[in-house]
Amino acid sequence: MCGRYASTKDPATLAVEFDAVDATGDGSATEQAPGADYNVAPTKPVFAVVERHPQHEPDSVVRSIRVMRWGFVPTWAKDCNVGVKMINARSETAATKPAYRASMARRRCILSADGWYEWKRENGAKEPFYVTGNGPSLAMAGLWSAWRAPDAEPDSPWLVTCAVLTTDALGPLAEIHHRMPLLLPRSSWRRWLDPDVTDVADLLTPEPDLLGALELRPVSTAVNSIRNNGPDLVTRVDAAPAGSAPPEPDPVELSLFERT
């Protein structure tokens, strides 16, 4: 986890949910704001919630909705293609890993999701499930980074990328996959997003109340391909007949899912 998720709300709605300003149209993003997406895959543009000090206003903080690319690119990377392999970061080690250490200290974000997908090995194939709260957006803990090519011009735009923080799966979720996104309760949002707070170790433990409200729903194998999209992907389906084997996810997509 997490290799795929759904995010269908517009930035204005997310701004209300997260008590933020919609900054997706301010011209600072290199990625175009996405529309409703029921099959968000690595390298796609996604919405993220961040808090930053406005320029020339060091004593104030603004929480805003921004557009980022899913697939973390460290500031020191020589090539942005490394982001394809860095869609997730382990919450247990992110504070010490060179790639994520600086972002864990000062560049944390929240990635909004309606729900996410997991695949369970059953009868020799992977069967998809959709995990959702059936209500307000799920707040997935994330990290972000701003990158420029080593040979870029000083005034060239920054590529802003992000990763989902994962943790050990608990309860019924552990029967599907051993990892899950770290979900943040509303009470943790302020400290998690505060750019002046460098130690958030106490926020890295999953909240049982949040997990208890989640629905684990079997869905169509159509989600296995990133070429498919639409609300039918999150619709509950009956279990596959005994002896049948659903199609496998595309090889590249499966390899991404197998990573933490």
Molecular structure report:
With 260 residues, the protein is an alpha+beta fold. It has a single domain (5-258), classed as hypothetical protein yedk fold, CATH 3.90.1680.10. 13% of the residues lie in helices and 30% in strands. The protein has five helices and 13 strands. It has helices at 11-17, 101-106, 186-193, 208-212, 251-258; strands at residues 5-7, 21-22, 37-40, 45-52, 62-70, 88-90, 108-113, 115-122, 125-132, 138-147, 159-168, 179-181, 215-218. A five-stranded antiparallel β-sheet has the order 3-1-8-9-13, with no helix packed on it. The longest helix has 8 residues, at 186-193. The model is unreliable at 251-260 (pLDDT under 50).
What's the SSE blueprint?
Blueprint: E1 5-7, H1 11-17, E2 21-22, E3 37-40, E4 45-52, E5 62-70, E6 88-90, H2 101-106, E7 108-113, E8 115-122, E9 125-132, E10 138-147, E11 159-168, E12 179-181, H3 186-193, H4 208-212, E13 215-218, H5 251-258
Parallel strand pairs: 2-5, 5-11, 6-11
Antiparallel strand pairs: 1-3, 1-8, 4-5, 4-7, 7-10, 8-9, 9-13, 10-11, 11-12
Quick overview:
This protein has about 260 residues and is α+β, with helices and mostly antiparallel strands.
How many domain units? 1
Q: Unreliable runs, pLDDT <50, ≥5 residues?
A: 251-260
Name of the level-1 CATH class: Alpha Beta
SSE pattern, N- to C-terminal: EHEEEEEHEEEEEEHHEH
| Relative strand content | 25-35%
Q: From the helix content, strand content and strand pairing, which structural class follows?
A: alpha+beta
CA(first)-CA(last) distance:
6 Å
DSSP strand count: 13
As a whole number of angstroms, the C-alpha radius of gyration is 18 Å
